[in-house]
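[worker-b] picked up task from shared queue
[worker-b] task type: protein-ligand structure
[worker-b] ligand name resolved to zinc ion; SMILES cross-checked against name lookup, match
[worker-b] sequence length check passed
[worker-b] input payload:
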Amino acid sequence: MRIFDPHIHMSSRTTDDYAAMHAAGVRALVEPAFWLGQPRTSVGSFTDYFDALVGWEPFRASQFGIAHHCTIALNPKEANDPRCVPILDSLPRYLEKDGVVAVGEIGYDSMTAEEDTAFAAQLALAITHELPALVHTPHRDKAAGTERSIAVVRESGIAPERVVLDHLNELTVAMAKESGCWLGFSIYPDTKMDEDRMVAILREYGTERVLVNSAADWGKSDPLKTRRTGDAMLAAGFSSGDVDRVLWRNPVEFYGQSGRLSLDGGPAEAEFAGNSILRGARK
Ligand SMILES: [Zn+2]
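[worker-b] inference finished, payload out:
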């Protein structure tokens, strides 16, 4: 089973996770820029993080045979912090980099006016830079948040097939499908969506335009949830072709719209100038 995890925060994970993911079939992933848990207090902590997403982390992934790509954005939660908002001015230079395959995660956390502004501004950046957009739907008040996200996407003028609405569930899948956007589902260990519910959604809505991710991060999460979903699909009677579509061909098609997917080692290694020095230092 070949697997492309379209949403996972590897900066928060260990090398054991990389090894286990490779053993489970993961050969490519996308790491969206997001909140670190600890609030950022300056623009500098964003730029250091973004530099790591295009430099250090792809190098780490490449050592385990996994192609690493990322998405860059001011995340919804920190769009409310005046210390963080000025990072919007620095996004264009990151959106030009090879390993960056979308603008994201953008969208709503608490649905404030500040989040509205950052969301619309970053959809405009996606259009300007000809990149897809990864939209995080809020975990609280999900139905209203998803509905409002779809309205903002529509107003922005970005083509819906260049947008994924992520963290969907049974309550939001129908409106998301109706919007023409891609459908993203995050499979968690014991809250929100699980693999059996995912299989039921695939039965009802089909495999077209569906992305399944682990969304693993610094919280309780499981980087092998993509594989577990593939196994659950097979056990439920889906073909290996269906599994390949959901876990590989769909994410390749969606992020391939950036024109920057590199599935044989990635642009990563060249990008990180410190590689050889660090490699030497570790030996
Ligand atoms: Zn995330």
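[worker-b] attaching auto-annotations
[worker-b] The two ends are 34 Å apart (CA to CA).
[worker-b] releasing lock
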